[in-house]
Amino acid sequence: MHSFRNKPRHDNALRRRERPWIPGLRALTFSLITAMLLCGSSRVATADLGINVKGDIRDLYFGEALYHAYQDDYFSAIARFDTELAQHYALDNPEQDTLRFHREESELLIGDLELSYRMHRKVGRAMKRLLRESVHESIRDRAAYRLARIAFQKGAYENVLVTVGNVSKNAPKDLRQKSALLQAQALIALDRSEDAVAVLKPLRDQKAVAGYAPFNLGIALIESGNPVSGIKQLDAVGTMKQPNREMSALSDKANLAVGYALLNAEQPKRARPYLERVRLEGPFSNKALLWVGWTDAAQGRYKKALVPWMMLRERDVTDIAVQEAMLAAPYGFGKIEAYGRAAVLYGEAVETFEHEIERLDASIKSIREGKFLDAMLREEAEHQDSWLLRLRELPDAPETRYLSKLMASHVFHESYKNYRDLHFLRENIDQWLAVIPAYHDLLRVRRQYYEPLLPKIDREFNRLDTQLAGLLTRREMAGRRLNTLKRKREPMALATSAERQLQRRLDGIEKKIARLRKQPGLPMLKEKHERLKGILYWQINTQYERRLSLAYKHLKELDQAIVTTRQSHRALVKAKAEAALSYKGYEGTLRDMQTRLQYLKTKISGVIAYQGQFMQRIAVSQLTRRLTRLKQYRTKARFALAESYDRATRTKKGKTK
């Protein structure tokens, strides 16, 4: 928490102006200043996630995870990034994986996405690992900035200063400016406002930190004992152009801060113009109207002060500023001696406070009965992009009446987000548990289909496998034989089957001729036989080269056929293995997953119960404080009512006399 140094004790001055019944004004305004000092720096928004991947996406699954991140589906994106990174690191050769092109970017993106789930420890470890690794300088710069932001959210401001120093001078301009703003905010948190001023001055005109740097500079100047320059700087923020609702709210905050600072310094006349700049329909309009009235009251212009106070009385009575206006307005009427009107308004205030006390009691009772947690998860407010805005549309029930007011507390707000996210995670687990039986059915159907077919396929496959092995053996023998024929000429080795048959017939005839006895015509018969053998040999021999070339050609065709057969063989082997793997070995994994999911569901349910009790305690504590304040207001209103009646009666008697 931060405070203005050397603040004048304006509350004493207000006591002298007969305002003893508003002790919460200074605390209220002080809380406002501390809440808006660090505005805009601790949130995790999509625009600040660093999702800006340059170049082509070379990994399909990285692109899928990135798609979910761009759709603000952070949980699905985290699950996919986690899975891909785990598989990448488990590979024997991760350098062959296409995710290597996006690994560092994945580490950064998953860190930012996990920040949206407040996983600060895990993100911090991942960012530190990136800083230790030999990664590209741009990755190191972005990791250093994110680590500094985590440290800031955890309140480790010294670590912020150390980590921001790791951002290099070559970092992109907007990153250097955001890092400098974070450094300045950490310096302010450490009461080193003068150092923060030196850091913030070069940033006040930079577009990347437009509005926030000048605002924090104004706060730092006031904190460092230079209220004149600080107010001037905040004045510039209060009069800047307002291109969007965010800048409009920041402008209102700046004007409110200046108005408070001047009112606290007993300069109500100067404070009024700043408070009048605050929009009437903005989130800070109620406080501005209340304080505008007090600037007039501080100058003794009570009739003028009644205008904003009476306007404020018509607004939502659950707002603290409105409740204070319920007392401020009759106080103003009393100062102008309109005691009757003051008494009536005090009476209305008492009735309003009593009614509101009853409602607070009912809300506290409803919260303790558990209805509050049920209302937190109603369909109107559950997992919607505009769930904060939709809270206003919830029905006016005791458990929801003060829900939007409770959201003003950072602790409660973060607890509520944790509560919603835990329920979301449990719903995901329920969905996964519902899917597991479908996988069991799928495995059963596959088993029923493949198991009757596999034995027959195995037998046929073994037969074909044996034939292929024999073919390969014969091919090797044919190849060796052709190489021998190429070196040593053997014409008959290339004879056709018809020629071999003729050769066998000639050999048989030769044997028969050899068995004949000498007789006339035998020499002529032998001569004819030799002539036929010579013709056959001549025919084969003259075609030897052509036949050898043709044999090599056929051998190459056989080799190509064998290659194709081998590919088909490998595909068949793979298909056969995949057929079995498509249903074998998964039952144990599915059982383990189901057991783990059941364990996680039980664990998350316990955390949900604890978180719910924590939220109930916070809500009851805050509402109890409001209840105590309202009872004090009611007591003071009753005393003021009695005093106003007495004064009105005495005034009437005096006029009668």
Secondary structure blueprint with pairings:
Blueprint: H1 10-16, H2 24-37, H3 60-70, H4 74-90, H5 103-115, H6 120-132, H7 137-153, H8 157-164, H9 173-189, H10 193-200, H11 212-223, H12 227-238, H13 245-264, H14 268-276, H15 285-298, H16 302-313, H17 320-335, H18 339-368, H19 371-376, H20 387-390, H21 403-406, H22 410-450, H23 454-487, H24 497-515, H25 522-542, H26 544-581, H27 587-656
Helix pairs in contact: 2-13, 3-4, 4-5, 5-6, 5-7, 6-7, 7-8, 7-9, 8-9, 9-10, 9-11, 10-11, 11-12, 12-13, 13-14, 13-15, 14-15, 15-16, 15-17, 16-17, 17-18, 17-27, 18-27, 22-27, 23-26, 24-25
State the low-pLDDT regions, or none: 1-50, 379-387
Q: Profile the largest sheet.
A: none
- Note the beta-strand portion: under 5%
Residues in helix, %? over 70%
Q: Structural class, from secondary structure content? A: mainly alpha
How many strands in all?
A: 0
* Beginning-to-end CA distance, first to last residue: 59 Å
Order of helices and strands: HHHHHHHHHHHHHHHHHHHHHHHHHHH
Shape: elongated
CA radius of gyration is 45 Å
* Mean pLDDT across all amino acids: 78
Number of helices: 27
Short description:
By secondary structure, this protein is an all-alpha fold. It is built from 27 helices and no strands. Helix 23 packs antiparallel against helix 26 and helix 24 runs antiparallel to helix 25.
